[in-house]
Design brief:
The protein has about 475 residues and is α+β, with helices and mostly antiparallel strands. The chain has helices at about 1-20, 25-35, 45-50, 55-70, 75-85, 90-105, 110-120, 125-140, 145-175, 180-210, 215-235, 245-260, 260-290, 290-320, 330-335, 345-350, 350-355, 360-390, 400-405, and strands at about 415-420, 425-435, 440-445, 460-465, 475-480. It is about 65% helix and about 5% strand. It has a five-stranded antiparallel beta sheet, covered by helices on one side. Helix 4 (about 55-70) runs parallel beside helix 12 and helix 7 (about 110-120) runs antiparallel to helix 9 (about 145-175). The radius of gyration is 24 Å and the shape is elongated.
Length: about 475
């Protein structure tokens, strides 16, 4: 397994570099490495690694969803809430209907099997979509109208909706009794419980982090551990109550950001570094699940079914955006962002075959083919159209975030020590201002004085812009643990 891990890291990084040189998303290179190194082509990844592949992929997905949560602002969610709710279900329903209309004739399967296939194909891939949306948000693209936030929220609920429908129809194919209304009621229950399951520990962690001044890596690891525990809780409770734990993972970041933006940004910055490794694991291991021999069997008929489903899905996505302030180019971007398939298809594509569905092999072949066709095309489309369409004002507030990360500035409440004099100070104020077209951050420090009490000692103010000396040339941040 050690060799497999080394192979994933080295080959994944090389592929990422080469593909980025072609001005394409690096994840395409990682997916290609996974396909080639996987058990269905060169078989370079050990069976032990493939056994734990699902766990690694889930942990990597948790990392990127945590980062997404730490970028979700309440005001942005309020602006896109209605559209996100509609987009979480309408495009998927359109795609299922499209597959139902063409699959029986093209693939020779029953209508029920066509619906099952439609449910598998209808799930948008958070593994592909979320990292690209986070990248846009990191650079302040689309911030004015909240388009990346809209797609983040809608795609997460979309998966919950589709998987519930898939469970219903797969149960019907097995001849079991299935109450459709009861199962559909699981969708809002799962969403609400998932969000609550993240808000509660998120609120608790906020209180812990404000009471104890831990080092950022420790805070980040605690948040990651709690998020992983949430996903375990979902599996432990799935027989009794449905819970969308991945929504809970995002809710952890949301509540910490809502209560303490400084702490949230520090944790998010560390997660960004963890994501460098997690991204390699996620996309290489997703690629390793793809059996290109099975995909080949789907042939032109399978391709036609996938394209028909995408056409219907695109119509559904466009309809979902009616009444929003987006122009036609921004709506086109949302349509393209809802194309990629990968994570869910790799996870449940073989389930019908394992359950004894007569056309299980055909369904699996089309599911695998959908990954090969839509993941790279969707990723390229998102990047190219997003760069041309998403707004980015010259005075975007995200430039302050870039400046803070570049200079590694402390936040309000953190204690710092002068490298020259050894005196200890505390950050008591920060202001973000524009110096013509340059962002700058003013920090005010208060010198700790146990004799006179808080707020009565001497204060200093410094300004930090891209042209000013580094904060860490003169100061170091102090932590309790």
């Amino acid at each position: 397994m050690a060799f497999s891990l080394a192979l994933i890291i080295i080959s994944g990084l090389c592929a990422d570099y080469l593909i980025r040189r072609l001005k394409l998303p690096g994840l395409i290179g990682m997916l290609m490495v996974g396909v080639l190194a996987g058990p269905y082509v060169l078989n370079l990844i050990s069976p032990e690694m493939m056994t734990v592949s699902a766990d690694f992929r889930r942990i990597a997905l948790i990392v990127i969803l945590l980062r997404a949560g730490f970028e979700l602002r309440r005001d942005t969610l309020n602006r896109v809430g209605r559209a996100a709710l509609i987009m979480s279900s309408v495009p998927a329903v359109f795609e299922i209907v499209g597959v139902l209309l063409v699959a029986p004739a093209l693939l020779g399967i029953t209508r029920l099997e066509a619906v099952i296939l439609g449910c598998i194909l209808a799930a948008v891939s958070p593994a592909v979509v979320v990292p690209l949306m986070i990248d846009f948000m990191d650079r302040g693209r689309g911030a004015k109208k909240g388009i990346p936030t809209l797609i983040l929220g809608a795609s997460s609920v979309d998966d919950v909706f589709v998987i519930v429908l898939f469970t219903v129809f797969l149960g019907m194919s097995a001849g079991g009794e299935m109450n459709l209304l009861t199962k559909l009621a699981h969708i809002p229950v799962s969403v609400v419980l998932g969000i609550i399951s993240g808000l509660l520990p998120g609120y608790f962690l906020y209180h812990i982090f404000t009471r104890y001044d831990w080092r950022p890596p420790r805070r980040t690891l605690v948040v990651l551990g709690v998020a992983i525990l949430l996903t375990w809780l979902e599996h432990a409770c799935e027989k009794h109550v449905p819970m969308a734990s991945l929504l809970g993972v995002m809710a952890i970041g949301f509540i910490i950001l809502e209560k303490s933006e400084p702490i949230a940004h520090i944790i998010s910055q560390k997660l960004k570094k963890v994501w460098v490794f997690a991204e390699l694991l996620l996309f290489v291991l997703v690629g390793s699940q793809v059996n290109i021999h099975v995909a080949w069997n789907a042939g032109l008929a399978g391709t036609a079914v996938i394209l028909a489903g995408l056409l219907f899905r695109s119509i559904g996505t466009y309809i979902s955006l009616l009444g929003t302030p987006f122009d036609w180019r921004e709506k086109l971007f949302c349509v393209v962002a809802y194309i990629p398939k990968a994570t869910v298809q790799a996870a449940i594509g073989a389930a019908p075959l394992a359950a004894g569905v007569a056309s299980g092999e055909v369904i699996l072949a089309v599911a695998v083919l959908s990954i090969l066709l839509t993941a790279p095309i969707g990723a390229v489309g998102i990047m190219l159209i997003g760069e041309k369409v998403l707004d980015h004002g010259e005075h975007s507030v995200y430039k302050f975030k870039e400046l803070r990360e570049k200079l590694n500035l402390p936040r309000v409440g953190e204690r710092i020590r002068s490298r020259g004099f050894g005196t200890v100070w505390k950050i008591i104020e920060e202001r973000e201002v524009w110096l013509d077209d340059l962002p700058a951050i003013y920090l005010r420090y208060w010198k700790e004085d146990t004799a006179t009490g808080a707020g009565t000692g001497r204060t200093l103010s410094y300004r930090y812009s891209p042209n000013d000396p580094s904060f860490h040339d003169h100061w170091e941040v102090l932590y309790d643990w």
